[in-house]
Amino acid sequence: MATSIDFIEYVCDQIRGTGDIRYKKMFGEYMVYVNNKPVLLVCDNTVYVKKHDCLANVMSDASVGIPYNGAKEQYILNIDNGDFSREIIDIIVPITPLPKPKVRKVK
């Protein structure tokens, strides 16, 4: 089951106030960006957060899962808890690098 547009908009509403939020559809699922940094992966109406050392204590009780075949295990974020979700975003945005610009091939 692919992520619904209603769910991805709910995710963005829950983290409102953490920065400039946008989402991009990728292979039928979504990446959520805060201040142009990829911070949340949303697959099958489930929100995933990359396992960072700085999240180990605050996400110690969180479930983990694999968002798609071949992906590494990630934390599952309880997006229904808006305060906690915003706290997680505030922790990971500063350590998440901006995506590398795509280099266009000259023909």
Characterization of this structure:
It is a single chain. The chain is of the alpha+beta class and 107 residues long. It has one domain (5-92): Aspartate Aminotransferase, domain 1, CATH 3.90.1150. Helix content is 20%, strand content 27%. A 6-stranded antiparallel β-sheet has the order 1-2-3-4-6-5, with helices on one face. A hairpin with an 8-residue loop joins strand 5 and strand 6. The longest helix has 11 residues, at 82-92. The termini are far apart.
**Main β-sheet description:** 6 strands, antiparallel
Helix count equals 2
CATH class category name: Alpha Beta
- Strand percentage lies at 25-35%
Report strand order across the widest sheet.
1-2-3-4-6-5
Say how many strands there are.
6
Number of individual domains: 1
Span of the ends, CA to CA: 39 Å
Q: From the 3D coordinates, which CATH architecture would you assign?
A: Alpha-Beta Complex
Shape descriptor reads globular
The structure class reads: alpha+beta
Helicity range of the residues?
10-25%
Mean pLDDT: 93
Quaternary structure: single chain
Query: Would you tell me which CATH topology applies?
Result: Aspartate Aminotransferase, domain 1
List the helices and strands and how they pair.
Elements: H1 5-14, E1 21-26, E2 29-34, E3 37-43, E4 46-49, E5 64-65, E6 74-77, H2 82-92
Antiparallel strand pairs: 1-2, 2-3, 3-4, 4-6, 5-6
